[in-house]
Amino acid sequence: MFTGLVEATGQLLRIDPQQGGRRLAIRTALAPAGLAVGDSLAVNGICLTVVTLGDGSAEVEAGPETLTRTTMGEWRPGRELNLERAMRADGRFGGHFVTGHVDGTGRVTGLRADGLQTTLAVVLPEDLLTCVVEKGSVALDGVSLTVAAVRGAAVEVAVIPHTWGNTVLKKLRVGDRVNVETDMLGKYIMQFLSRRKGLS
């Protein structure tokens, strides 16, 4: 379980193909002191398991399902990535409940500076849009954000300067894809209503 509050950014050092999936080597200040082999690490919102640790780097593995559902297939060495360690049970909780199980991807259609904030517009597939509500939460590339508005198929979020400056959101351009995880509660409600409708 994660919070969507990015702890650090890292740099993708190497990608090794592996039985339909990939092993990624990431340079990060979180390694090795802040990580252990077997730990969960959210990488641009994707929950991955640390399999190897080096001096200032960590390696994680991803299977074919992850490559299909996320933006990982587009990543190249040198890319900057959002990183967050799993939440401690005895720690303070911020952001919102983020599982690291990406629902799908959205596409950036707008970036607008509004005084202190940057408004980011992302078009979502219809099946994800049904789980998004104004003033609710959504995770984009692993960042917990509040939905400012829903306009048709586009979700708008307002990003404060601290978040903009300390995450990879600042690297986004119109046309880029982002990993999207909708609010956990919304997904359970939609599933419940769908099954109930099927029984009626």
By DSSP, the count of extended strands is: 12
What general form does the structure show?
A: globular
Q: Please tell me the CATH architecture of the largest domain by its name.
A: Beta Barrel
Strand content: 35-45%
What spatial order of strands do you see in the largest sheet? 1-2-5-4-3-6
Highest-level CATH class of the largest domain = Mainly Beta
Keywords:
single chain, 200 residues, alpha+beta, Elongation Factor Tu (Ef-tu), domain 3, 6-stranded antiparallel barrel, globular
Short description:
The protein is α+β, with helices and mostly antiparallel strands. It is 16% helix and 43% strand.
How would you characterize the overall build of this protein?
By secondary structure, this protein is α+β, with helices and mostly antiparallel strands. It has two domains: 78 residues, Elongation Factor Tu (Ef-tu), domain 3; 91 residues, Elongation Factor Tu (Ef-tu), domain 3, CATH 2.40.30. 16% of the residues lie in helices and 43% in strands. The strands form two sheets. The protein has a six-stranded antiparallel beta barrel with strand order 1-2-5-4-3-6. Strands 7-8-11-10-9-12 form a six-stranded antiparallel beta barrel. The protein starts with 7 loop residues before the first strand and ends with a helix. The mean pLDDT is 93.
Fold blueprint:
Elements: E1 8-18, E2 21-27, E3 40-43, E4 46-54, E5 57-62, H1 64-69, E6 80-85, E7 104-114, E8 117-123, H2 126-129, E9 137-140, E10 143-151, E11 154-159, H3 161-166, E12 177-182, H4 184-199
Antiparallel strand pairs: 1-2, 1-6, 2-5, 3-4, 3-6, 4-5, 7-8, 7-12, 8-11, 9-10, 9-12, 10-11
